[in-house]
């Protein structure tokens, strides 16, 4: 908690939200930044004002940062090692038709 003005009750810090924006229909949401807001609705409005000022997006996601579980960059090699022995899953083994967008 941070101290408020003299005689005022202390303020609690607002939670941190991660912001994801979809640029066009059919594309993936992309992480564009973070912001503090009182709740999800306020975070959506703030994200719209901050990250889509020039009509860059068609959809916004906001997620509280403390709700995200992530792998550690320090554990990259052991965490992703099992996928190296499954090279058949790589897209280089399959022809991609020219009429398939965003692949």
Structural descriptors:
3 strands; 103 residues; single chain; 2 helices; alpha+beta; Ubiquitin-like (UB roll); three-stranded antiparallel beta sheet
How are the SSEs placed, and which strands pair?
Elements: E1 16-22, E2 29-36, H1 40-51, E3 59-64, H2 76-80
Antiparallel strand pairs: 1-2, 1-3
Question: What do these coordinates show?
Answer:
The chain has about 100 residues and is α+β, with helices and mostly antiparallel strands. The protein has helices spanning about 40-50, 75-80, and strands at about 15-20, 30-35, 60-65. The longest helix is centred in the middle third of the chain and has 12 residues, at about 40-50. The protein is flat. The model has no long low-confidence stretch (mean pLDDT about 80). It comes from Allonocardiopsis opalescens. It holds the Pfam family PaaB. This is Ring-1,2-phenylacetyl-CoA epoxidase subunit PaaB.
């Amino acid at each position: 908690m941070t101290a408020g003005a003299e005689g005022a009750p202390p303020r609690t810090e607002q939670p941190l939200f991660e912001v994801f924006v979809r640029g066009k229909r059919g594309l993936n949401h992309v992480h564009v930044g973070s912001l503090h807001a009182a709740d999800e609705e306020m975070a959506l409005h703030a994200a719209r004002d901050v990250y889509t000022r020039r009509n860059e997006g068609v959809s916004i996601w906001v997620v509280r940062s403390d709700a995200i579980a992530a792998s550690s960059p320090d554990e990259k090699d052991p965490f992703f090692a099992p996928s190296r022995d499954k090279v058949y899953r790589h897209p280089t083994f399959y022809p991609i038709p020219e009429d398939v967008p965003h692949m």
